[in-house]
Amino acid sequence: MIRNIMAILRGVTPDEAVAICGALIDSGITIIEVPLNSPDPLSSISRMVQAHGVRASIGAGTVLTSTQVGEVAAAGGRFVVSPNVNPDVIRATKQIGLTSYPGVMTPSESFTALASGADALKFFPGEVIGPTGLKAVRAVLPSEVPCWAVGGVSPTTLGHWFAAGANGVGVGSALFKPGDTAQIVADKAAAFAASYDEARP
Fold first, then answer.
1. Could you report how far apart the first and last alpha carbons of the chain are, in Å?
2. 8 Å CB contact between 185 and 10
3. Does the annotation count 177 as an active-site position?
4. Domain ranges of the chain
5. What CATH class does 5-199 carry?
6. Active-site residue among 16, 33, 71, 109?
């Protein structure tokens, strides 16, 4: 079973990345993002891919330029997540064969992203948009477009996001904060995965 939970490991270091990635996978979360504003993120991605790439989909977040897209691919990343809509980044991502998750808030941004080739839309920041905002934008999007809620997603709000039309969620500090051990991450991930299974329609 693949849960549409993207674990966002902002601040993870290369020395701890492999163990934390393994803890997430063992707890049922197999989509894992390392934001590029983390310490030596490409090294973390490379090590995680080498150790766990068969069992998980590993990629990068906070990707802002086409050059960074190439660096992510060279490190073995399989997807690119951005906080914004940059058609050049989206096109570069697709040209190199990776999956594109640009960040959107509005219908205009959503359709610009789709026209550029985005595979899915990351509704961010979720705290601002809320399930009500997602539902409103979702109503005008093609039904087959995957929509992910990122930011402010918690076990108690999962059901609201799914009811509003979210297909998946991106989760940061509720799964990992700098300083967390692999065991702490495992415990958080197991609890979050259980909440996801209960809330998913």
1. 15
2. no
3. no
4. 5-199
5. alpha beta
6. 33
